[in-house]
Every structure is written in structure tokens, then in C-alpha cells.
Amino acid sequence: MLTDKFGRRVNYVRLSITDRCDFRCTYCMAEEMTFLPRQEVMSLEECLRIASVFVSMGVNKLRLTGGEPLVRKNVLWLIERLGELPGLDNLVLTTNGSQLDRFAPALKAAGVKRLNVSLDTLKPARFREITRIGDLDKVLRGITAASHAGFRRTKLNTVMMRGINDDEFVDLVRYAVNHALDISFIEEMPLGDIQGRSSTYISSEETRARLSSHFDLLPSTENSGGPARYWRIPQSESRIGFISPHSHNFCDTCNRVRITARGELYPCLGQNDALQLLPALRSGASDDQLRQIIMDSMGIKPFGHDFTQQMDAPQVVRFMSMTGG
Ligand code: SAM
Ligand code: SF4
Question: Model-level pTM greater than 0.85?
Fold first, then answer.
């Protein structure tokens, strides 16, 4: 059982399996990115080993993320093996949706329980501007393919940006309701050296107030143990979530740690402290030695992060694509 020094039980790992991506979302990456050299990135076997060690310590939920996890070569090899790990009840994946139309059935067959798909706009030209490369139609086809493959309650993730997509929040909620999806609105976080965030920042409170004039939002008691707070719309199964790293500190119930594609273990998204798993793994560490490093990380898991509204200065120097969202 993994428990940190504040008594919080950690049963959830977010594992970034690549820092690469087929999009370049403006809030997540710089236009010109330098990606990690291949030898610095964990092999799929190393990802599996780390995941297995965490599961042996009571972790029962694992989210694959990135970068874009579905652009990693042979990703299905890993997912199929993770799907067979006894004790891992909840294997989930966050994706930009670009490859979902071809991967959805195989992901379902491999035991992936649920998908999060990032979607900030329903307008093709705007989608191209935000992602710098992406094709909206392909992502929407991916969302449909996921539903045909049997995925239920797929969750859309929408980063809120004033003057960029805030005129579409109502349409995005309608899209979610019409397609039996959930949707979470995310406050933009100051990760990576990206300028101009303070002019686009919108709080969850403001978005919720704006949505309330179009929908009857009923507070929901559901809580995933994570940072989202949920609302429901009457006569609909869809949940509307708000992830508010700035305006509501959600750290007191934090149950997760993050592993980067380089095998760094970050106990907190909003802090720069990490422990290195890859050197140990590559120098032949036993499972017990890896478990010891993981136990040690519980000692440096801080009580919380402290993102301020100073959005133009990066408060964490890593890009989100490094740590995994
Ligand atoms: N490529 C996949 C995707 O886009 O869903 C998975 C990785 S991405 C880093 C995970 C999530 O982080 C996405 O929903 C994305 O919108 C979000 N994200 C990236 N940078 C962010 C930032 N600076 N603030 C808030 N959310 C961010
Ligand atoms: Fe890629 Fe996801 Fe970052 Fe967009 S948010 S650049 S899709 S990793």
C-alpha cells in the first residue's frame, strides 16, 4: 500500500509513454519542439516493468498519456500486456483522438476501460489554429469509432481560453450531451515556457456561471478522487466537470503520481522535484529496489502545488507533454 507522509493513499499512476505528438497545441507545446533522443525514452518493456512494480504496491488505476500515446510505435503491445496485469482494474488512456478511428476496437479488446479525448473546439479552422496541425474531422470520427467499439462515457477535455474558444463552451456541452459523453473544462496551467497565457486565462467559476444561463446545472456528488468537480444536466447522463488548479486547490485528496517518458517519477504535477527510475532500471535493479525508490518518492510528495495567476512566467519549466496531462 503506497501512502505519502500526509496519509494520502496513492493508487493511481499517470504514465507518459512518449513526449512526441502529432499535434502542437499552442497551450501545450512550443512551435519548434526538440524531442528526447530515443535512447532517453523508456522502452515499452521498461514501461511495463515500472507499471507492474506499481501495481504490486497496490496501484489499481493507470492512465497512459504523453505526448500522444497512440503515436508510440507498437503501443498495442504494451496496452495488451497492461490489460492482463492482475490487480490493475482501471486501465485508461488520454488521447488527442487523431488515431482513435483505427485504434478504438483494439483498445477496447485489450481492456482499456475508458478514454479521455481532448477537444477544444468544434470549428475546423479554429481546431487547426489551436493544434497547429490537427484535422478536426478525424478526431470526431475517432470519437464515433470509440463509441462503436463499445466505449461508454468517453470524456472530452476542453482547455478554457478566453478569446479563443470561450464562445463555444455551450456548443461543446451540447455536443457532449448529444453524444452521451462527459466533458471537463480545464483551467490553463502555467507549464512550459509559453507566453501570453494571462490574457486567455478563464476560471472554472466564470465558465460555470456562463453555462448556468443555458443549462440547469445540478451539483453531483460523484468524485473520481481527482481534481474535477462535477455537475449534471437533468434528463442527461452527461457529467460536466471543472478542473480548477488555480481557483480550487484539490491537493488534499491527491491520490496520484506521474511518470515521464524518461522514467522520472514526479509526485506532483505542479512541483519540480522528481526521482529517477530509469538509471536504476537500466543498471539491473530488482523489483524490491524499484519499490524502495517509489516508497522514497512518498517522502517528497508535497502537500500541494501553488499555481498563481502569474500565468506568463512558467511556474513549472516542463511542458505538459513531458509530464503527461
Ligand atoms: N496528447 C493527449 C491529449 O492531448 O489528450 C494526451 C497528453 S495532453 C498533455 C493531456 C491533457 O493536457 C490534454 O487534455 C491537454 O488539453 C492538457 N493540457 C496540455 N497543456 C496544458 C496546460 N498548459 N494547461 C492545462 N491543460 C493542458
Ligand atoms: Fe499533443 Fe496533447 Fe499536447 Fe496537444 S495537448 S500538443 S495533443 S500532447
Answer: yes
Q: What are 111-126's pLDDT values in tens digits?
A: 999 999 999 999 999 9
Residue of 14, 68, 159 to test ligand 2 pocket, by largest number of atoms within 8 Å of CB: 68
- Whole-angstrom distance, CA of residue 147 vs CA of residue 324: 24
Tens of pLDDT, residue by residue over 226-265, are: 667 899 998 999 999 998 877 656 677 888 899 999 999 9
Give pLDDT tens digits for 62-87. Answer: 999 999 999 999 999 999 999 999 99
Q: Is 25 in the pocket of ligand 2 (CB under 6 A)?
A: yes
Ligand nearest to the CA of 324: 1
Residue from 111, 117, 116, 88 nearest 12 by CA: 88
Look at 195 and 255; give whichever has higher pLDDT: 255
Determine the Cα–Cα distance for residues 142 and 151; give it in Å rounded to an integer: 11
| Cell reading at 148 | 462503436
- What does the chain come to in residues? 325
What average pLDDT does this structure show over 130-158?
98
Of all ligands present, the nearest one to the C-alpha of 158 is 1
Distances (CA, A) of 25 to 21, 31, 303: 10, 8, 30
Paired sense of beta strands 90-95 and 275-276, if any: unpaired
Report the C-alpha gap between 265 and 88 in whole angstroms.
19
Report all structural domains of the chain as residue ranges with CATH numbers, in order of start: 12-323 (3.20.20.70)
Spatial CA neighbour of 74 closest among 103, 114, 113: 103
For residue 315, with 0-12 CB atoms within 10 Å meaning exposed, 13-18 middle and 19 or more buried, which class applies?
Answer: middle
Q: Which residues 6+ apart lie within 8 Å of 216 measured at CB?
A: 233, 234
Instruction: Please give the pLDDT value at position 255.
Output: 87
* Residue 106 contacts residue 76 (beta carbons within 8 Å): yes
Distance 319 CA to ligand 1 centre (A): 10
The secondary element (H helix, E strand) that includes residue 76 is helix 75-83
